[in-house]
Amino acid sequence: xxxxxxxxxxxxxxxxxxxxxxxxxxxxxxxxxxxxxxxxxxxxxxxxxxxxxxxxxxxxxxxxxxxxxxxxxxxxxxxxxxxxxxxxxxxxxxxxxxxxxxxxxxxxxxxxxxxxxxxxxxxxxxxxxxxxxxxxxxxxxxxxxxxxxxxxxxxxxxxxxxxxxxxxxxxxxxxxxxxxxxxxxxxxxxxxxxxxxxxxxxxxxxxxxxxxxxxxxxxxxxxxxxxxxxxxxxxxxxxxxxxxxxxxxxxxxxxxxxxxxxxxxxxxxxxxxxxxxxxxxxxxxxxxxxxxxxxxxxxxxxxxxxxxxxxxxxxxxxxxxxxxxxxxxxxxxxxxxxxxxxxxxxxxxxxxxxxxxxxxxxxxxxxxxxxxxxxxxxxxxxxxxxxxxxxxxxxxxxxxxxxxxxxxxxxxxxxxxxxxxxxxxxxxxxxxxxxxxxxxxxxxx
Length: 445
Known about the structure:
Elements: H1 3-6, H2 29-34, E1 64-71, E2 82-84, E3 90-96, H3 99-105, E4 112-116, H4 120-130, E5 135-140, H5 146-154, E6 158-161, H6 167-207, E7 219-225, E8 236-242, E9 248-255, H7 260-278, H8 283-297, E10 305-312, E11 318-324, E12 330-333, E13 339-340, E14 363-366, E15 371-376, H9 393-406, H10 411-426, E16 434-441
Parallel strand pairs: 1-3, 1-4, 4-5, 5-6
Antiparallel strand pairs: 2-3, 7-16, 8-9, 9-10, 10-11, 11-14, 12-13, 12-15, 15-16
Helix pairs in contact: 4-5, 7-8, 9-10
């Protein structure tokens, strides 16, 4: 193998003629004498500053790949310090006699490993364990070597026949192996990202509640829209269940803040509420226990949660309302305009005050004939109206829902239309989470 094929270090130019093209004649004394001397500065003018010229590279430096050759190399095929084929990438050669010595040379600067070992398959497995992000080549005796196919199957990027060890063959093999490894890693990362996203979506869907209302004679509808982009779950939470005594318990809440931590805390509070409700707790006792759960599970003392609970009697004619810093529900009766339930006796949000200072009062609610109860979080009423700073607020929501009810909408259609119109008034997506729950007692329920 000639040194010219493997590549050699280019000599460095030194001496008085270094760096000047061969075709350019050296300046002579006559020409130097004939050159006019630079004129001095005019009287009163400042002397010009002479700036050094920047060197302009005629071409970009070639890419360099570091190749670690592992093996004895009895034929001396890799004695040259580097391989280079024309203007292609420069392959710098590092040498290690065995895998143990190779371990000391394995750094992030090694782009490719070439294995020339008696048990090359075990070598591939070892390298994949210790350097999973590095491209791997195996040196084989021929192009159709069966060992090469097995090496590629278990993780090597390619093989290099011993007869192709020259500047062109090594450069091509290393370049292709490095690019294949990059593609493999990118595909693996993309696949892992997709699987993780699918898993998160399945998890989030499973964490959204399934109402338990069998035998209640009520229709249930809900709408949930997290404020986080591409998320299925936010800090808002809700649930509705019917206990064995026939009472229907409905709840909606909102954890302050955004992000996965708020979403996780919201799920914990919802699950705690359902478990405590089925255990027979209710009213102020349930709220105090919920506050204890929040205090123990929150990551910061500043985190709080608002909550609204309703306990509807088995006959559907009365209910008890508790508000913990949450907006009051909307009630629509037969033939009447929707109105907000009383909120003057509402207590503080969970986590704001210690137990000895927190107080929540039950507000009795009369439910006559057919009715609709809408529970919602503040994301529905805090959207903007137009381009100014005006917010929709509860009065605007009342007018909006009243108009939709007059148009004959109910159930999911009512909630979808309400949220859509709120988004349109806001001029785009709402930045806060939105949760809405609708319970209807109708003749056809």
